Each structure stands twice: as structure tokens, then as C-alpha cells.
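Project outcomes to date are best conveyed with an example. Our students and postdoctoral researchers have been running inverse folding experiments weekly, and each run begins with a structure described purely in C-alpha cells. The record below, which covers 569 residues, was selected by the lab manager from last quarter's runs and is presented without edits.
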């Protein structure tokens, strides 16, 4: 009877022991080199045609108009925001991302070349793919399973948002460094060598200063320890220095971001600022359904899809409720699944919390591209389900293995084909905006961007209509770019009565850089030097390196005896 209980106990923890039956590095799997080469080769083939694409969207400001890059100012990467604005007004302090852009400028011989930027973005992505494979290889102790899951991550259509869109570089760096941290932590679980622990903490810190995507990584690492280690309490005690250090890094970063946040201005480009908690909750539940569809069946994925759900009683709430009830039933009925469900529940909650808009309102409404961060726990879940089914003899037959092979091959080909197709949308800005606007007709951002492209080909009336549409659709207090762009049309038509209020609104809404430049030009053109001097002075407080405003300042100094004071960094 005692033996039977021991057997039952062993069976109940079979899933855990399959993942990590001891704390010694596995030696029997062989070299991972050929798998890594295959991942890199496929990744290059899938994204190669995208390397020649131009800069689009925010690239025009974040890359082409960024004075930190134009001046090749290494130190400014640490003292300005991602867009080159002063640190006191920035909403994105991501120095490592800015440094990566400066490195691209250096590789291009001092020239901002989109080809170089696309190549390095792909390299950073493949860097993350390799370390995801190495992490999963240690986690599952299976090369082939780890390779298939890593390949799904590599070629998923969600990756086009960051690989082919240069301004998405921050997401690539944050996730790739996070995956490197996961791999180092997995090694740390096995051997408790201080070097691996330090590398994990350092990679986490660098990830935070690329983008705040994985801010909750310390909690995820704890869950992985809890998930795998047979004696996780003792392990945590023996590695207490590591846990204190990594949570201290998290605390210091939160304090730093809070201090920065209190100094910056609110950039409310989200409807959530105007809603109550129930609306935010219902929208979050809708987001979960959309994220699930994008992760597993991204048949109409597009970049800029802002959505909001005003009523809690809907099919999305029902679907989430049914799925949660199913997990609750499995958790209650099957004891050997409890740790699995609890662990992954915590991981999903940690990753979703920063982008949920339930507690902290983000500048933007929920977007489809944010589902990318959930790819990693989804792959872990798929791998764990496969291991569990294999251990219970559901898929050990020759026929079942063939079926799974065919399904995986079809799934991977589906991802590859759609990723390739999606990459074609980035071949030109107008192609991308026109395509995505079909799926998100109420997107004020896409309407403005398409209007800009029409303006550039001199289709002024269509551009004017799109700018007005963008202004009407944008949530309060408004969206600055279409305000500035519509004002520019009126300024070119010498209609200053309509242009000036629009420029002022763009400035008051978001301290929009181009609005400062254009309004100063307008005032100067019509001899309103006092107003021009005031606009230039205000603009230089926020954008101290703006060449247009600096040029205006020099011209005004010839007229006024008192020079315009620059805001010193």
C-alpha cells in the first residue's frame, strides 16, 4: 500500500519531473548548433525581402528627425527621450534603444540608412529567437520540441510590427534581452553559479531601459523556479542574494519611472481617460479574446487597431468566463494540473497587468501588437501540454505522431506565408496605411498618416478630409499631428485665422514639435515678432536641439537685445 502511494505521488508530479528531474545540466541531447543554424536561416529567408523597405510612420520623427541621431550625440542618449526631447518632458526614456540607433548610424558611415536599421533589427530579433530556443531546450530537455516552438515565435506575424518597423526596435530589444535573461536564469537554476545570476539581473536591467515590456520579469522567474525546482523553498533561501538584487532593481526602476512620470505632461491619446472602471474591464476582456485570436489565428492582423468595449454583457465576456470556468474545473478536478494552471495564470497576469489599462491608464488604448509579449507563455503552455499528453500515452502511436507533425508543419507554413504577406504592407507608407485602415476605419492615427501621404502627392483635398476625420475621431484632449497638418494646409492657403488656433491646439495638446516650428514660421512671415519670439522660447524649453527653432532664435537675437535663453540639459 505504501508503494502504491509512492507511485501515485510520482505520477502526480510527472509533468514537473519531466521538465526538470534533477539539478544537473542535461548532457544527452547533443549539440544545438544545427537547430540554431536552421532557425537563423529560416528567419533570414522570411524577413529578407523586408530589408529594403523605407522608413515609415514614427520613423520619420523618431529616426529621421531625431537630433540625437543627426548630431551623433552619444551622451544625449542618456539625457533625452526616445524622440530627442528634453528629459523633463519625455514620456519614453529608453536610452538603450537610442544607443542602438546611434550604432546603426555609425555602421552606415554617419548616414541614416534604412537598410542598416532593418538589418540590425532582424539581428536583434534572431538573437532573441536563439536564446528562446536555448531556454526551451533546457526547460523541456528536447531539441526538436524547443526548435518547433522557437520557430513559431520567430516567424509569427506579430514580429513584423517590430522587425519591419524600425520604431518598434524597443520591443525587439526588450524581449530579446528578456529571453537572454530567461536562458541565464535556467542555467542558474541548474548550477547556482553567481555568474549566471548576475547576467540575469544585468539583462533584466538592460531590458527595462529598452522598453518596460518585461517589468514583471522577477515574478516570472520566481514562478519558473516554483514550477520546476523540487525543493524551491530551499533553493530560494540559498540564492537569496539573487532575489533581493533583482527585486531591488525592479523597485529602483519603478521609483525612477514614477519621478519621471510626475515631471512629464499627460499625453492622453486614449479613450480610457474618459471612462469608468467597468468600461475598462469590459474592454480588457474583449482584448483577451482578440489577443487569443491574433496569437493562434492571425488571419487579419494589422498594426493600429484601437478598440473599446462599453458594455460588460457581451460575447467576449462570455467566452472569457467559459474558459476561466474550464480552467477552474480542471484545477479542482485534477490535482496534477494545479501547479501548471496556477503558475501560468501568474505569468499571464504579470505580463498583462502593465498593458491592461485597469489600474494605470496608458497613453494609448489597447492595441493588437501588445499581444506579442504573450507569445512566450503561450509557447510554454503548448510545450507543457505536449509533454503531458506524451507522458499519458495519448500521442505515442505512429499515426498520432504523424498527425502532429503535419499539423505543426501546416501551422508553421501558415505563419510564414502570412508574415511574408504582412511584410509586403510595409513596402510603402501609403500601402500600409490604406491596408490597415480597411480593418480599423475609426483609427484617428491611420487617418492622419494616410492624409500625410496624400498631401505629399499633392492630393490636398483628400488629405484635408482625412485630417478632419482624424481630429473628429481622436479622444479628448485631441491628437496633435492632424491639428498641425490641417493648420499647414490653411497656412499654405494664407488662411491664418484658421491655421493659428489649430497650431496652438496642437501645442497645448501635446507640445507638438512641428507645431512650434510651423507657428513660429507663420508669425515670422507676417511680422508678428513678439508672438514668434514667445513660441520659439517655449519650444526650446522642450526641444533644446531643434535646428529650426535654434535658427529662428539666432535671427531674433539680431532684432532683440535680450537673447533667447535655451533650456540647458
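After processing, the design step wrote out the following sequence:
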Amino acid at each position: 500500500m505504501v508503494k502504491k502511494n509512492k507511485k501515485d505521488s510520482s505520477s502526480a508530479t510527472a509533468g514537473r519531473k519531466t521538465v526538470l528531474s534533477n539539478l544537473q545540466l542535461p548532457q544527452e541531447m547533443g549539440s544545438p548548433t544545427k537547430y540554431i543554424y536552421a532557425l537563423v536561416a529560416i528567419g533570414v529567408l522570411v524577413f529578407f525581402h523586408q530589408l529594403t523597405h523605407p522608413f515609415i510612420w514614427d520613423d520619420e520623427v523618431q529616426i529621421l528627425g531625431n537630433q540625437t541621431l543627426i548630431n551623433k550625440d552619444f551622451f544625449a542618449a542618456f539625457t533625452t527621450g526616445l524622440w530627442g526631447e528634453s528629459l523633463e518632458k519625455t514620456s519614453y526614456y529608453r536610452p538603450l534603444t537610442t544607443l542602438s540607433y546611434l550604432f546603426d548610424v555609425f555602421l552606415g558611415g554617419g548616414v541614416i540608412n534604412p537598410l542598416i536599421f532593418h538589418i540590425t533589427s532582424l539581428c536583434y530579433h534572431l538573437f532573441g529567437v536563439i536564446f528562446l530556443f536555448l531556454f526551451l531546450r533546457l526547460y523541456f530537455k528536447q531539441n526538436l520540441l524547443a526548435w518547433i516552438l522557437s520557430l513559431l515565435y520567430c516567424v509569427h506575424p506579430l514580429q513584423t510590427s517590430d522587425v519591419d518597423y524600425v520604431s518598434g526596435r524597443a520591443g525587439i530589444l526588450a524581449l530579446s534581452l528578456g529571453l537572454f535573461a530567461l536562458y541565464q536564469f535556467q542555467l542558474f537554476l541548474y548550477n547556482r553559479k553567481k555568474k549566471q545570476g548576475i547576467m540575469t539581473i544585468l539583462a533584466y536591467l538592460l531590458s527595462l531601459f529598452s522598453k518596460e515590456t518585461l517589468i514583471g520579469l522577477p515574478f516570472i522567474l520566481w514562478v519558473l523556479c516554483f514550477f520546476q525546482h523540487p525543493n524551491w523553498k530551499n533553493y530560494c533561501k540559498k540564492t537569496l542574494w539573487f532575489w533581493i538584487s533583482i527585486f531591488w532593481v525592479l523597485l529602483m526602476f519603478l521609483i525612477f519611472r514614477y519621478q519621471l512620470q510626475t515631471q512629464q505632461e499627460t499625453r492622453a491619446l486614449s479613450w480610457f481617460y474618459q471612462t469608468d472602471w467597468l468600461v475598462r474591464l469590459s474592454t480588457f476582456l474583449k482584448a483577451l479574446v482578440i489577443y487569443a485570436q491574433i496569437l493562434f489565428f492571425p488571419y487579419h492582423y494589422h498594426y493600429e487597431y484601437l478598440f473599446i468595449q462599453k458594455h460588460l454583457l457581451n460575447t467576449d465576456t462570455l467566452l472569457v468566463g467559459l474558459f476561466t470556468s474550464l480552467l477552474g474545473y480542471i484545477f479542482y478536478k485534477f490535482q496534477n494540473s494545479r501547479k501548471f494552471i496556477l503558475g501560468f495564470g501568474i505569468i499571464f497576469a504579470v505580463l498583462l497587468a502593465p498593458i491592461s489599462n485597469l489600474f494605470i491608464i496608458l497613453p494609448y488604448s489597447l492595441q493588437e501588437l501588445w499581444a506579442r509579449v504573450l507569445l512566450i507563455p503561450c509557447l510554454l503552455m503548448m510545450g507543457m501540454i505536449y509533454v503531458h499528453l506524451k507522458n499519458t500515452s495519448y500521442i505515442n502511436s505512429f499515426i498520432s505522431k504523424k498527425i502532429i507533425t503535419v499539423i505543426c508543419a501546416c501551422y508553421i507554413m501558415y505563419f510564414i506565408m502570412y508574415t511574408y504577406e504582412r511584410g509586403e504592407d510595409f513596402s510603402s507608407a501609403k500601402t500600409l496605411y490604406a491596408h490597415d485602415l480597411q480593418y480599423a476605419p475609426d483609427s484617428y492615427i491611420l487617418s492622419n498618416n494616410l492624409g500625410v501621404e496624400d498631401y505629399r502627392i499633392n492630393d490636398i483635398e483628400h488629405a484635408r478630409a482625412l485630417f478632419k476625420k482624424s481630429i473628429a475621431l481622436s479622444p479628448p484632449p485631441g491628437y496633435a499631428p492632424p491639428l498641425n497638418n490641417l493648420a499647414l494646409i490653411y497656412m499654405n492657403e494664407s488662411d491664418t485665422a484658421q491655421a493659428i488656433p489649430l497650431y496652438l491646439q496642437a501645442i497645448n495638446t501635446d507640445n507638438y514639435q512641428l507645431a512650434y516650428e510651423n507657428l513660429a514660421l507663420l508669425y515670422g512671415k507676417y511680422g508678428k515678432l513678439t508672438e514668434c519670439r514667445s513660441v520659439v522660447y517655449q519650444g526650446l524649453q522642450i526641444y533644446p536641439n531643434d535646428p529650426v527653432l535654434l535658427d529662428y532664435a539666432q535671427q531674433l537675437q539680431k532684432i532683440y537685445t535680450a537673447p533667447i535663453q535655451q533650456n540647458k540639459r
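The radius of gyration is 26 Å. Residues 398-425 form the longest helix (28 residues). The training component of this project remains on track.
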